[in-house]
Amino acid sequence: MLQSSLIRAKIRKGKIYPVFADINNVRDVELALTMIDRFKSAVKNGETKGSIASSVKELEYYYDYRLVRGFYSLLERQSVFKSKADYHGIDPILLRRKVFEESSKRGFALTEYERGRIMSDIAKAFNINSNMLEELLMSDMDDNLLIIELKPISVDKLIASYNLSLIQTLLFKCVTFECKVSSGVEWKYLLRDVKRLGLMYMLEYDDNNNNSSNKKVSNITCIVDGPLSIFKMTEKYGTSIARLIPTIVNAREWYIRAWIVRDSNRARSYEFTLSSKDNVMLDKSGDPSTNIYDYNGKSITIYDSSTEERFANTFINYDTGWRLVREPEPIVVSNKAFIPDFAFEKGNIRVYLEIVGFWTKEYIERKLQKIRELRVERSDIDIIVAIDKELECSKHSIVSSIASNNVNVIVYEGKHGIPITHIINYLKSIEEKMINGHTTSNMLDEIASIINSSASIIDMHLIAERYNISLDTLLSTLNSIEYTTKYTRVGNRYLISNWLLDNIKNAMVDMKSNKFTDACSLLAEYGIPEECYATLLYLLGYDVVWNSININNAVIVKRSNNN
Q1: Is 293 helix (H, G, I), strand (E, B) or coil?
Q2: Please, which pLDDT band fits residue 435 given cuts at 50, 70 and 90?
Q3: What pLDDT, on the 0 to 100 scale, is given for residue 402?
Q4: Beta strands 494-497 and 457-459, pairing class
Q5: Is residue 146 domain-resident?
């Protein structure tokens, strides 16, 4: 982006028209070439940043100063600067500290002689002369940095980069903007980045497609709330919008429409439109994931998908039996579209999760209302909405006043992540409803049949998979079945017949060795799953004593209170 004061634009009949740099404009090309050559010359001569800025400033008398400064800002980002002190391995901050400390000990240096003595003594301490000390003392100041490299950049590239930055800077002043791209694949990239950047958005089908029964993603208009629609975190949010622009302009066909505010009191907004048909030269080499720079040319790191990644990894580790789907297909009802971040699937059941990025009260109200409208037409839609209260952009905090109104809403603190237990408990409640439905009798009959068949080991996990429910949910139903007279539950997965346990217990008494590995071999002979060894030995009255980390040195000891 550029400084907002460097925006070149014309206003006419309620519309705003940016003044782009033109590759066919002789003066624009001349200026771009002159400035690139000036930076290359500075690299060759080892000049300071201040020297370059001073010489470039003279160009403002002959060209539009806003274009000169815009080009300069972009070329500065393409340059590599280094402090002269770096070549000597000396920290300028340490130099200044030593000079000031020495001056404080001796009193103020009121004469050149006194000053010279202090500088000479400090120079000797760093094994340099006084003149070099003078040069290095402030060498890390911005104007004193030496240019050592200009990354390759052509006139075309500079002009294209300037035009892209001009659009980004202009949209930093927008109240809202709309965008469209051509194909389904490009829409996927666009919507992925809209969500990754946490932007406040709505999706709508074009009105002229409302009567079409074959609605495609390419007919969707993405409406994004602009930075001037919020009261807090406007710079961070505006930078997120800027990062979206490369994704849009990289599409084969694209369209942008925005309402821009130019005055500070926001009294009036002006319409801005631009599309791929306008043939404006734009830099399409940038990736949306690369850094955007603030007004001072410093790299900014902003919101990304770490929240989603952290949630996904945690959920998968819980092994709930639900399949986690990243970026499921859009939910389309009437002329509205909704794209959740995740879907939880089990059998024919699907539950969606929408993770909200930046938000205001108005945005949350619109989103929840949209979900309610979707559920009116599609009662099978089940959506959880997760709201990070740290990304609230309202003027005053309204977290406590969010009215969910029949929408499953989770409000959480971003630093702690999305509360996974809330979601898992909700999914379990859905499983319980499944169990209380038509599958209950069949499932209980199957378990009862297996118990009556006198099977030696029952793997409850296999039954849970057959009925598409979690193991915990299945085990909770065992209370309605009388199984304890025939089976003992070992761990959270297996039922082992009591007669088999009696046989193992007797074999353990006859076993002459007390080595843990020998006990495991015995259990294996009886078909006991390896994951049950330690638990089963405890149930049989034995403790495992580890004498070292080597399993061969572990022994089993009979507890005295268990016979």
Answers
A1: strand
A2: low
A3: 58
A4: antiparallel
A5: no
Between CA 176 and CA 204 the distance in angstroms is 15
SS3 1: coil
Query: Which residues on neighbouring strands pair with residue 379, listed in sequence order?
Result: none
Q: Domain check: are 288 and 218 in the same one?
A: yes
Residue 206 shares a structural domain with residue 282: yes
β-bridge partners, 459: 494
Task: Give the range of the structural domain holding residue 364, as residue numbers without chain letter.
Answer: 306-330+339-417
Q: What is the CA radius of gyration of the chain?
A: 35
Best CA proximity match to 398, nearest among 365, 429, 355, 424: 365
Q: Quick one: angle between helices 26-45 and 49-57, nearest 10?
A: 150
Cα–Cα distance between 250 and 33 in angstroms, integer? 26
Q: How many domains does the chain have?
A: 5
Q: Would residue 272 be called left, alpha or beta, if left means φ above 0 and alpha means ψ between -120 and 50 degrees?
A: beta
- Give residue-wise pLDDT tens across range 269-302: 899 999 989 989 998 876 544 444 444 444 443 3
Confidence band, pLDDT 50/70/90 cuts, at residue 19:
very high
What confidence category does residue 53 fall into, taking pLDDT thresholds of 50, 70 and 90?
very high
Q: What sign has the CA pseudo-torsion 82, 85, 90, 93?
A: negative
Write out the two tokens for 556.
């089993």
CA 99 to CA 91: how far, in whole Å?
13
First to last CA, the chain: 78
Q: What are the angstrom distances between the C-alpha of 129 and each of 67, 84, 90, 112, 475?
A: 43, 15, 13, 17, 81
Give 528-548 pLDDT, tens digit per residue. 888 888 888 888 888 888 888
Q: Say what the pLDDT of residue 159 is.
A: 95
Higher pLDDT, 502 or 438: 502
Locate tokens 């709309």: which residue?
178
* Pairwise CA distance, residues 484 & 559, whole Å: 24
Q: Which residue has the tokens 């509360």?
A: 419
**Residue 61 CB coordination number (10 Å):** 8
Q: What is the pLDDT of residues 211-235, one digit of tens each?
A: 443 344 356 788 888 877 766 667 7
- The answer for residues whose C-beta is within 8 angstroms of residue 177's C-beta and 6 or more apart is 171, 223, 224, 226, 241, 256, 257, 258, 259, 272
Token look-up 């094994």 returns 127
State the helix-helix crossing angle for 112-125 and 130-137, rounded to 10 degrees.
90
> Both 45 and 186 in a single domain?
yes
Going by their DSSP bridges, the two strands 408-412 and 457-459 should be labelled as unpaired
The answer to whether residue 291 is domain-embedded is yes
The residues facing 270 across adjacent strands are 260
Distance CA 177, CA 174 (A): 7
Whether residue 253 sits in one domain with residue 181: yes
Structure tokens at 333: 């009802």
